[in-house]
Amino acid sequence: KAVHNKSMKFSYLLNAPCMGNMEYNKEYHKQLLEYIQWISDIEVDSVIVTIPFLIQLIKKQFPELKIRVSTIATVNSVNRANFYEMLGADEITPDVMINRDFQTLKNIKKATNCKIVLLLTDGCLYQCPFRLYHYNLLGHASQTNNEIGQNYIDTCILNCSIIKYSNPAEILKARWIRPEDLSHYMEIGINHFKIAGRRMSTPWILRAVKAFSSQNYNGNLVDIIQGFSMSFGGLEQKDPNLSLRKTIEKESRSKLYIDNKKLDGFIDFFKNQNCISMCDQCDYCEKWAKKAVRLD
Fold this sequence. Notes:
By secondary structure, the chain is of the alpha/beta class.
């Protein structure tokens, strides 16, 4: 109600990549339907979903809810986008790994009637080997019926951070999008964008929103992109990740500086480059990292 009173819309996140097959258990399935009914009853506008079965279920039994396919579903081709639209999707956030694949994005936009919503602020490694596993870790940890609960060690973040802080080129290979480069995506018909950062502070979110809405940021990209600086609240001694989180918080203050204004023109190269098959033959990101990235 508070969101609607501000003339905004509310999306509810149901985007775990796996439910441990509980969605097919009779009792749990009943609870799931009751839960989605509650989401509908409080007048949520849309849900963000990864699991195809869940998309089909919501489309058939809760048609009043719009469905956005999560980036976790790795929609990275025209064919996959068409399949998700057939399943009932109204909107799609493509796989962040194709954020700089302009031809694929353009063709997905042309081939579907879905709203395409690009995720702007993801600082994950390009073609990250931990990504799918990490989503599964987080998905299962968020589920109250999980026997293990949140008792896991987030080795994914630790590995990812070590790689990025050891090689500045990997920082530029990550598929974030600069505020100044939104116009390049508008040119191919994409006009809707997502600023991720729900675990970040309110000042961080406001700073990022201002930067992307004005399409201009004069400063350190670390301040508006996730994955390079981390902040955690409510640390408890029971948290198995306590020492890891403290390590990451210390690491996030390691004076990483990505000079946004020194990246003017950086995006142009990707309009004609096939990164997925030629990354080992190219030193483009390494050269730009020497120019724009400072790291202690």
